[in-house]
From TrEMBL:
<dbReference type="Pfam" id="PF00583">
    <property type="entry name" value="Acetyltransf_1"/>
</dbReference>
<dbReference type="InterPro" id="IPR051635">
    <property type="entry name" value="SNAT-like"/>
</dbReference>
<dbReference type="InterPro" id="IPR000182">
    <property type="entry name" value="GNAT_dom"/>
</dbReference>
<dbReference type="GO" id="GO:0008080">
    <property type="term" value="F:N-acetyltransferase activity"/>
</dbReference>
<feature type="domain" description="N-acetyltransferase">
    <location>
        <begin position="14"/>
        <end position="176"/>
    </location>
</feature>
<keyword id="KW-0012">Acyltransferase</keyword>
<keyword id="KW-0808">Transferase</keyword>
<protein>
    <submittedName>
        <fullName>GNAT family N-acetyltransferase</fullName>
    </submittedName>
</protein>
<dbReference type="InterPro" id="IPR016181">
    <property type="entry name" value="Acyl_CoA_acyltransferase"/>
</dbReference>
C-alpha cells in the first residue's frame, strides 16, 4: 500500500476527536506502552491534563473497536520555551495561551507504520492554527528529530530539559 493510500484510508479507519473524561485510564495505559517509565506521564497527571484541557487532546479512535489507537496532547501557554514543569504541572495551562507545549504523541505499536502519527500531527496543527495559536513546541530525542522535521518542525537545538534523565531537542512549528 502506498503512503498516499494509507493517508486516504485513515479517516475511514479512525475517528479523530477530543478525548473524553472516561478515556483517561485508557490514555494512561497507552502512555505506559509508548514511553519508558522515566519518560511516561503518570496516571494522575494524565487525569489532570484531561480534566483541565481536554480540548488540547486529539485522539484517533479505531472505528471498528472504539478503542484509542493513539493521541497527541499538550498545554496552551504564552511561554515561548519548553520547560520540564509542563510535564508535571497542569496548572501551567492557560486556555488563552498563543502557544502549545506538546507533551506526548502516542501511537500503539499495532497502529504504527500507517501514517497515524503524521495524521494526528497534521490535524492538530490545522486545529490549533484555526484556534489562533501561534506556535507548537515539543521536546524529542535525537532519534525523532527527522520525523518531526518531516511534520513541519524546526530543530532549535538542545532543550532546557532533563526529563527522564535524557538529552532532548527542542522543536518548533510556527502556525502563522
Amino acid at each position: 500500500m502506498t503512503d498516499n493510500k494509507k493517508q486516504y484510508d485513515l479517516p475511514l479507519r479512525f475517528t479523530f476527536r477530543e478525548i473524553r473524561p472516561e478515556e483517561a485510564e485508557e490514555a494512561a495505559d497507552i502512555e505506559e506502552i509508548c514511553f519508558p517509565p522515566n519518560e511516561a506521564c503518570s496516571r494522575q497527571m494524565m487525569r489532570e491534563r484531561i480534566e483541565k484541557a481536554p480540548e488540547l487532546f486529539l485522539v484517533a479512535a479505531d472505528r471498528q473497536t472504539g478503542a484509542l489507537a493513539g493521541f497527541l496532547n499538550g498545554l496552551s501557554t504564552d511561554e515561548t520555551s519548553f520547560r520540564d514543569e509542563f510535564f508535571t504541572d497542569a496548572g501551567l495551562y492557560d486556555p488563552a495561551g498563543k502557544n502549545v507545549m506538546l507533551l506526548g504523541l502516542d501511537v500503539l505499536p499495532r497502529y504504527r507504520g500507517q501514517g497515524l502519527a503524521r495524521e494526528l500531527m497534521r490535524r492538530y496543527q490545522e486545529r490549533e492554527r484555526a484556534a489562533g495559536r501561534r506556535e507548537l513546541l515539543l521536546t524529542c530525542l535525537d532519534s525523532k528529530v527527522e520525523m518531526y522535521e518531516k511534520m513541519g518542525f524546526r530543530d532549535l537545538g538542545t532543550a532546557n530539559s532533563a526529563w527522564g534523565g535524557e538529552i532532548w531537542h527542542e522543536m518548533s512549528c510556527l502556525l502563522k
